[in-house]
Amino acid sequence: MKTPESPEISLFARIADALERLAPAPAATEALPDAPAYAWDHGTLRPVATLSAQPLDRYVGIDAQRAALLRNTERLAKRLPAHDILLWGSRGMGKSSLVKSAVAHLQAAGEAIALVEIERDDIADVSLLLRRLAKREGAFVLFCDDLSFDTDERQYRRLRSVLEGGIEARPDNCRFYVTSNRRHIVPREMRENELANSINARDGLDDRLALADRFGLSLGFHACDQTTYLAMVEAYGRAYGLDIDPQAAVTWATGRGGRSGRVAWQYVQEVAGAAGVRLS
Hints:
Blueprint: H1 7-22, E1 37-41, E2 44-48, H2 63-77, E3 85-89, H3 95-108, E4 113-118, H4 126-133, E5 139-144, H5 153-163, E6 174-180, H6 188-197, H7 201-213, E7 217-221, H8 226-240, H9 246-255, H10 261-275
Parallel strand pairs: 1-4, 3-6, 3-7, 4-5, 5-6
Antiparallel strand pairs: 1-2
Helix pairs in contact: 2-3, 6-7, 8-10
């Protein structure tokens, strides 16, 4: 014969059931498939099947930046001390593509490293990403492309806290690589407004510049001269077996208002398309 439960036990059982419904047990962590790259998209880590990148020896005019970036990324892949990197400077000079190429180069060499692209709006959830990647064996470059902050304090302060100073330590298999056209990530007019409107202008300015200071390695990319631009075009031409007309390449750059690695690649695409050559 079943013994009836006491009123106290029945009450506690009902409370326990109610609490379980309000706060169910966390779901099992979804397995992360191996991929050369991932996209962090609103709390979901989405694998990217192919990491499109130029060979590292294809870059011209940024030898020092390429060497420094590769050295740091090699250390990260081997779980040695490595820096977060800020790549700043002129548009189209290879900041973003160089990051992808460095990761792809090490993957081809057998290193367990992957790229994780993070949009600015998803920085607020980056702690969740770090906890998930900390359980993985490989290394990860957390890549924020073309980053700048105007008035969004939440993402700005969240990234600054994660880079240094937060109470939760970052795993040693993850480092941030950020590209920006601005050396201090925030625009000049914002820095000037801080000086004009702050009660203590220097404190306000220092707070704004603190994010850029969190990066252990800062690599500057500057507009190239005509000689370097033509060397870029010729390097692409040799790689794809294309006949390059230097004067036409200069005219192409003039029509676009400047010289850069991006403009050189666009000209090569034009030449290849006209010649019926596929660029792989």
